[in-house]
Amino acid sequence: MPPVASPKQVAASLTELWSPRVVAEVDDSYVKVAKVQGTLAWHSHDAEDELFLVLKGHLRIEMENGTVELGEGEMFVVPKGVRHNPVAEEECLLMLIERKSTQHTGGVVTEKTRSLAEQLRPIAR
After folding, report:
1. What is the span of the domain harbouring residue 81?
2. Looking at the 3D structure of the chain, how many domains does it have?
3. Looking at the domain assignment, is residue 115 inside a domain?
4. 0.90 cut: is pTM over it?
5. What share of the chain is helix, strand, coil (3-state, %, to 5)?
6. Which H or E run contains 12?
């Protein structure tokens, strides 16, 4: 039987910002958690939607056609092809659900971009 996990506790235990970690798989999608603060990067995912769920804190998702503000317990799906830039003024814990093919920052590569291998690293529990 798979272990029971607390996404909020796992996200809180992370030491790297903007470095999502895979905590589960559901069919062709990964469930990821992340600890974020500051700005990630403007990017898009041409073929994949991306679900953001705030576990703790506040997240702003800037998009070219507007901005979404998310508080604890709120979620938003960024539709495929929509350029977006996640921003957290204070430390924020997130859960993300994405297809396994989703690249961290789409076709944009920055110092914050994480490979799938990095996201799949074991998490010390």
Report:
1. 7-102
2. 1
3. no
4. yes
5. 10, 45, 45
6. helix 7-13
